Amino acid sequence: MSSLRGPLSRTGGTARRRLVGLVLAAAVGLAGCGVPGKSEPRTAGTAPGVNDPRPGSNNPELPSAIGIPDAGELVDRFFKAAAAGDVDPTLRDQRFDTAVRYAKDFLTPAAAQEWKPTVGQVVVIDVTQKRVVSADEVDVDVRAVGLLNEWGAIEALAEGSPSPVPQTLKFQVERPAAGGELRLRNAPPGALVLSTTALNEFYEARSVYFWDSNGRYLVPDRRYLNGQVNSQKRARAVVERLIDGPSKMIDDVVARLPDSLTITSNPVVENSRITVNLSAPTPLEQEKLERLARQLRWSLSPTQEAVEIQIDSRTRHVEDGSGYLAYNPTYRFQEADNQAKFGIFGMVNGKVTRTASGDRPMPVLNDEHNSNVVAAAVNVERRTAALVRQVASNRQELWFVREGPEGVGAAGTPNAFRAEFPADVTSMGRPVYLPGSNGRFLVPAQGRLFDVTSDVNNSAARTVDLLGRTIKAISVAPDGRRVAMIVVDPNGPERVVVATVNPESSPVSLTDRRTLDVGDVTDLRGVAWVLEHQLVVAAAGSLTEVTIDNSERNKVTKPDFGLFPVTAVAVVPRPTGGAGTMVVEGGTGGNVQSYRVYTESLAPITVTLSPSANPTPGASPAPTTMPVRGAFYVDLAAD
């Protein structure tokens, strides 16, 4: 599996950016440690190629079948050959034939004649192990990731469907007479393959954005574009992908562009502006032009160029301000790193507490129901707190505390009410807010998943169908249209599953489920979105980052995790250009607390409580430093 260039890594060279491993080096005992003197909060460099176009001249050339020294290298290069089909996105209709023709250069004439890969399919594979059995034989264990289509999306294989490639590929190598070239005597039966290594080396990963079905947020759709494409063709390819429509993963929850819209020429990229010339037989209203411009600006290059939209060569709209940023909900979460405004939340003495003073009062945290809390979520925009309270030794309940026009009481204080769960539900996990759903939360409880509305007139929890699985943890993407879950199959293993969520059904429905490969990691504890397309999965002894299309994975093991098992993880997700800060909770028994993850160490999260109002006679009042449990970040996305 190719290494992840993301939050737990640092970027390397331009042509092939590889992971330089993160070392969480400080030994952190359960009693805590000091804050690192010079360590900075854990952030990323460049996100994994997302919207970070690489000039074609800086990209590696496609692998050649000439001058290959050994059988192992021959197989490695063959796995990269299919990238040839995507060098020019304007020749999309020739893509498959070009890739096959290039791949056949690595085969003997007889093998090339016999090889008949399934038309149109490029199977992305992860090479898990390569064994050079002899000088003329190589065995490769692979895992099929998905199908890379002509629009740059990796479409997941249906759960339970047979793999399009065998688990082990056995290659025979022909060694010709002196002066000849090594060639393969066989190819994967019926499959044109592309390794994740090649995907990492020759393509840039970037998001194109579609408006959600209600037109409130932009939802990212992860795509791949060959890195050798020049700037104008790159821009055209992005626009064409928007016109073609979303990938299967989000197709049911986003809006398409008008069917009549076409692009008439390559966009012009100059003077910090991208000019896109479109044809629209049906006139577009000004509001739709503005929405299209925001969509294009995020998809084309969100931090650089302005976008000018021309319709039949006449300028109709220019988007050159910063207002478009707010329409990507992930962008809003960057403020959560601002300690003065939000900061980290967590439980101290059974109360939800802010770990830093803020400039925004939060009456919901002063409510009497903020007691005996074991897990919580806070949505600042709606001024709502969802509190899991330990009301008895063997029973937990979910309470909502609301402040604002719809939640304030007669005396001007927040309203509080209990959500109604089935009688057999006695334990709950952390609630997560579902943006764009009119105040709904998803709550893992008693191995089930419930859809709950923070409305006193609609307080009954509704069961979400998990197809017979039980749930351990859940995290909602900031766009509110995708969720990540840790689930357990009936009598089977734990899995990390990403699904599309439709908040307009009641209860919410989960579709397009895809299982992510986290390697040999077991005892999974928590999951969180790090970037728009990337998760971090916490196990007892490690953190693993994985992209939602299974293309990249990076496992980070901390030496003292055996003494300090992780119990939960939370992150401030970002759209591009790095990632927000991360916190983990860990420990055993009563010695559990939260830690900030720094570049090279961990630091315990604590708060200082005011001195007691009635100190011991003769003693000077002193502040008390308390550990924070269950640390989390505020939910910022609004309805």
Largest sheet composition: 6 strands, mixed
Give the beta-strand count: 40
As residue ranges, the low-confidence spans are 2-58
Q: What's the gyration radius in Å?
A: 26 Å
Strand content of the residues, in percent?
35-45%
Describe the structure in your own words.
- The chain is mainly beta and 639 residues long.
- It is 10% helix and 36% strand.
- It has 7 helices and 40 strands.
- Strands 3, 4, 5, 6, 7 and 8 form a 6-stranded mixed β-sheet that branches. Strands 11, 12, 13, 14 and 15 form a 5-stranded mixed β-sheet that branches. Strands 18-19-20-21 form a 4-stranded antiparallel β-sheet, with no helix packed on it.
- β30 (524-531) and β31 (534-539) form a beta hairpin.
- The chain is globular and about 95 Å long.
- It starts with 8 loop residues before the first strand and ends in a 6-residue tail after the last strand.
- Residues 2-58 have low confidence and may be disordered.
Structural topology:
Layout: E1 9-10, E2 20-21, H1 71-78, H2 95-104, H3 109-114, E3 122-134, E4 137-148, E5 154-155, E6 168-174, E7 183-184, E8 192-195, H4 196-202, E9 203-211, E10 218-226, H5 231-244, E11 262-263, E12 268-270, E13 273-279, H6 286-300, E14 306-311, E15 314-319, H7 329-332, E16 344-348, E17 351-354, E18 373-379, E19 384-392, E20 395-402, E21 415-418, E22 432-434, E23 440-445, E24 448-453, E25 462-464, E26 470-476, E27 482-488, E28 494-502, E29 509-516, E30 524-531, E31 534-539, E32 542-547, E33 553-556, E34 566-571, E35 582-588, E36 591-597, E37 602-604, E38 606-609, E39 624-627, E40 629-633
Parallel strand pairs: 3-8, 13-14
Antiparallel strand pairs: 1-2, 3-4, 4-5, 4-6, 6-7, 9-10, 11-13, 12-13, 14-15, 16-17, 16-40, 18-19, 19-20, 20-21, 22-23, 23-24, 24-25, 26-27, 27-28, 28-29, 30-31, 31-32, 32-33, 34-35, 35-36, 36-37, 38-39
